[in-house]
Design brief:
7-stranded mixed β-sheet; alpha+beta; two-stranded antiparallel sheet; cca-adding enzyme, domain 2; 422 residues; 21 helices
């Protein structure tokens, strides 16, 4: 226990009146309740805190009774594993009874409830995730997490292989948390255990794998973690499409994103490490059960051909009109990042980067123009509906796009009348 470490003065959330009321209600009559996990970790790392979880000695039914008696709403969101969601002051808090695993199968665990804080800490994955904080901010460290936070070291609690066999998702979590919080080289024992047990990833649901990969790709700089994943064979196991394509482009993409102030985009980073092959991207989308939006973005990116850096804005506008704007934006961003990376030693690449930067700025501002005539306009002139009218409209639209969208409505109507012999 580390009584000399406190969150007081570091954590605004600790002074939330509703949180303090909830902790006080749970602690009545000799029970104990502490803030657990990510909120403590992130506060010590000076990182933003999104969710606040609580660990308590009260059994789930007693947690509900006490919270509701204090005027809070509750929902039994994970009651079979001891978790109750309590809504206090409009914020949800997950309150989980102390527990220990009695049986695991690599995906799910059977638990028993208890009152032993050390056993509760030891069932967690990494030392930095097994910290607790009392209501006054005093940090309770039972597994050496504070020292690991100070060293920016990600370490499994106890035996790394044993922790992974309890839940194979911890392999991906090892690299995800390393990407977010680690420094230097990953813990050697953890890395070896991930490499040895990587085949266990096949037991996991696609949704869990993609969720973890997406969080990893959302880190400020996931490039080192991806490199170690590849070295350990974990990246190939989780994302086989990346195997022969490599991950070299990710480093330049991250640097470019930081330099130019781009928002972190996990999908763009995924595109940087897989081949632009529409068939393989369709398979990837189905295998990882991506959302329709995510799968569509991958497909459009794969089907889009990157424009030349010397292309004019008018030429790009024509491509954008017939193509997918997001597909072009992704292609141009990746091409810009690649050119900027090569520009360190290649003056030609520097010129290419300038061209892609110009095209990107244009594409970001571009709005699709509306073709100024419709079939109804021609039928009002007396044209008969049918294939000839449709073909005429299509040809005129091509002429209009070919002119750089400059042909005026009157001119187009005249040409339509001539073509349809109205």
């Amino acid at each position: 226990m580390s009584a000399d470490i406190t969150l007081s003065g570091k954590a605004d959330w600790l002074h939330d009146e509703q949180l303090q009321r909830l902790l006080a209600a749970l602690k009545q009559g000799g029970e104990e309740a502490r803030v657990a996990g990510g909120a403590v970790r992130n506060t010590l790392l000076d990182q933003p805190v999104a969710d606040i979880d609580i660990a308590a000695t009260t059994l789930p039914e007693e947690t509900i009774r006490r919270a509701e008696a204090a005027g809070f709403k509750t929902a039994p969101t994970g009651i079979e594993h001891g978790t109750i969601t309590v809504v206090a002051g409009g914020k949800p808090y997950e309150v989980t009874t102390l527990r220990a695993d009695i049986e695991t199968d690599g995906r799910r665990a059977k638990v028993i409830f208890g009152r032993d804080w050390k056993l509760d800490a030891e069932r967690r994955d990494f030392t930095i995730n097994a910290l607790y904080a009392e209501a006054d901010g005093t940090v309770v460290d039972l597994v050496g997490g504070i020292a690991d936070i100070a060293a920016r070291r990600l370490r499994f609690i106890g035996d790394a292989e044993a922790r992974i066999r309890e839940d194979y998702l911890r392999i991906l979590r090892f690299f995800r948390f390393f990407a977010w919080y680690g420094d230097g080289r990953p813990d050697a024992e953890g890395l070896k255990a991930c490499a040895r047990l990587k085949e266990g990833l096949a037991q996991l649901s696609a949704e869990r794998v993609w969720s973890e990969l997406k969080k990893l790709l959302s880190a400020p700089d996931p490039s080192r973690a991806l490199l170690w994943m590849r070295q350990a064979g974990v990246l190939t196991a989780a994302l086989p499409e990346s195997e022969k394509w490599g991950i070299d482009a990710i480093h330049g993409l991250v640097r470019t994103g930081k330099d130019l102030g781009w928002a972190v985009d996990p999908m763009l980073r995924l595109e940087a490490i897989v081949p632009p092959d529409a068939v393989r991207m369709k398979t990837l989308g189905e295998r990882l059960r991506l959302s329709n939006e995510e799968a569509g973005r991958l497909r459009h990116w794969a089907l889009t051909v990157v424009p030349e850096s010397k292309a004019t804005e008018t030429e790009l506008a024509k491509k954008l009109y017939y193509g997918d704007r997001d597909g072009y934006l992704d292609r141009i961003r990746l091409a810009l990042a690649a050119a900027r990376t090569r520009a360190v030693e290649d003056n030609q690449a520097m010129m290419e980067a300038g061209g892609f930067s110009r095209l990107l700025n244009f594409a970001l501002k571009w709005e699709k123009p509306v073709f100024p005539i419709k079939g109804a306009d021609l039928t009002e002139l007396g044209a008969a509906p049918g294939p000839k009218l449709g073909a005429t409209l299509k040809n005129l639209e091509k002429e209009w796009v070919g002119s750089g969208f400059t042909l005026e409505r009157g001119t187009l109507m005249q040409r339509a009348a001539q073509a349809l012999e109205i």
